[in-house]
């Protein structure tokens, strides 16, 4: 079962858009730290992840978050391959929201 829970900080203003059949989609970018980010020898920077919310309620909840706000998001991870101009494919992960808990 693909289930993921992340504590993230919102790093990009959330956006709302609609599909061709009228479904509401909210999306933003959040940042999270690895469990080892306090390592004094090798400090790590936060990792960005795209967050996507499908449906009226979840999209509105996501849209109401502000840049810098902390939240806990539960959902599933999804990956997409993107063809780069350099001639190779890059895999990007996104978190598809099931629940949002503002902190």
From TrEMBL:
Keywords linked to the UniProt accession: DNA-binding
Keyword DNA-binding tagged: yes
An example Gene Ontology molecular-function term: single-stranded DNA binding
Domain of life: Bacteria
Name this protein carries in UniProt: Single-stranded DNA-binding protein
């Amino acid at each position: 079962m693909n289930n993921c829970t992340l504590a993230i900080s919102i790093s990009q203003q959330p956006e709302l858009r609609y599909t061709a059949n009228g479904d509401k989609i909210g999306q933003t970018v959040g940042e999270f730290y690895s469990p080892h980010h306090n390592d004094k020898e090798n400090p790590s920077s936060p990792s960005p992840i795209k967050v996507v919310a499908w449906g009226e309620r979840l999209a509105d909840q996501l849209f109401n978050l502000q840049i810098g706000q902390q939240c806990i998001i539960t959902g599933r991870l999804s990956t997409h391959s993107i063809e780069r101009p350099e001639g190779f494919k890059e895999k990007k992960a996104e978190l598809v929201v099931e629940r949002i808990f503002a902190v």
